[in-house]
Amino acid sequence: MAGPRISVTMPCYNCGATVAGALDSLLAQEGADFEVVAVDDGSTDETASVLAEYACRDGRVRTFSISHGGVIRAANAAIEASRGQYIARMDADDEALPGRLAAQAGLLDDHPDVGLVGCRVRFGGCRRKCRGYARYVDWTNTLLDHEAISLNRFVEFPVPNPSIMFRRDCLEKHGPYREGDFPEDYDLLLRWLEGGVRMLKADAELLVWNDPPDRLSRTHPRYDVDAFYRVKTEYLARWLARNNPHHPVVHILGSGRTTRKRADLLLGHGIKFAAYYDVDPNKIGHVVHGLPVRDRAEAPRPGEGFCIPYVASRGAREEIAAFLEGRGGRLGRDYIPAA
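That's the Glycosyltransferase sequence above. Prediction below.
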């Protein structure tokens, strides 16, 4: 008997309080032929019994338990057990909004050149207490087509992991989540983009992305800021080798200590800096590690050099982009943001 068209893979660990809601939101989906593959990652609460109850109640839910090994192992186990042509991700504390599966499968049907799709997501946390996370969600929701996703990949994770659906052959060609001291979801996205996978998003809110205080992205060192910069630097260096006409020389916009710490990771990959550029008169004219800090007005114009903005303060990326593009610069050709 043929398997379902879509497999929703859900790693579960000590999520007894939320997994029923996540499953209910999936089982209410209409217009899609799907299964839910939920893997209990050695939970010590009632997660396994909740999953078993749903599996008995609805044949679309398949579940099994493994010894506790972490979210990467559980996610890959769910993917390995899946049977669908299209594979979706879902976290056990999130909510699929009506039409999610049908809309994303429809995008893949309509765009045979696209390998992975996401959607706009609804922030499920407190915007007042978690302003940074909420702003991140708002930003990801502006990136809908492949060009926007691809050219903003080094800013932050442009497609929230629980929102993705992808073709099985992409998985077979480019590999699943990898273990390491880096965010596995960001690594997968960067690896697949580097491998030529095209990506799109449905222009609709199809997932509530909740933000509990114990979310792994808040508590595990694999997801801290430094880990994101380590993994993005590796892929950025290879991107520059292919796309920077002045390779290996780049111009760094920003000269603060944090900017330099993050940009300097590129030096270990053979990238060379011509100079730092800043708007702070207290920094302009200084020499840092043998490199001058110049007025931003002296940054190379299009065709003269390739710029990488590394300033992460609120609004800085947009302001720098407006400055560069006001002089004729083009994203991806003359500059690429990395913060």
